[in-house]
What does this fold into?
Amino acid sequence: MQIKLNGIEFEVAAVEGSLREAILSDPVIAKAVWRDVYAWEAGAQEGKFTGPVTQTGAIPLANGISFYVARGDGLEKNESASKTSGERFLKALGVKSTLDVLKAMARLLGMPQKTLPKEFDPLKPVASYALKMHVEHSVLRLRNASRNLQAYLLLPGQIGFHHEITAIKDQEGYDALVAEKPELKTLTPLFLVPARSKANREMRATALMAQTRELAAQAQGKTPEELPEALRMRIGRNQAELRMLSQAAAQARAQGGQQPVRRATA
It folds into this structure.
């Protein structure tokens, strides 16, 4: 698969597991993986967003970009080389910042949004709480070998919301609520991020199929009952996202609309 940015063609490929995890654990990228999004104050009976929000009250799910370069043959980040790689990439595209690149990618891939889940609303009369959002990204390598340009693109694919009780306004009411709905203690609503463009679907599917092969290798020789729960859940989430992408592609074909060209201008 190829995309074109400001007239420069890039090969798009999935990123292998160990490098993918290294990129996602980079402190700069980690801020987009775990995000504070909302706080509810039971005493005042009002809430406020604690992160970026759109005018319609939704949380933007922006794409990300990394110029990660490993040190030697390992996975430790080479800060100097990563900085140089990013500067070379931006100069070649003729833009001033990564924000310019991300704006172009948003036009190509879309920027989905997510409203707050309603599942935590029963807590509002009795407790204050904070919400964090966890985003699982597909990670892809953009590479132009002839010009020695490389970057890693991060596309949101799945999100989960986690809550932390910060104060209990009504202890008796809270105890009664969790006795009636014990799932509130560990509630983690999960959502798949819709794919609004052909490029988004194809890129995410490329990354997910590579991850699925890695997960299958880890599960080889084991029965479903023998698989660790975390691995079993990861396989299930990957399969669910791939099904969603396949259904979206089938729907787009059925509608017979003109597919956008995979190019963007920053």
Summary: The CA atoms of residues 126 and 225 lie 39 Å apart. The chain is about 40% helix and 25% strand. The chain has one domain: 2-264.
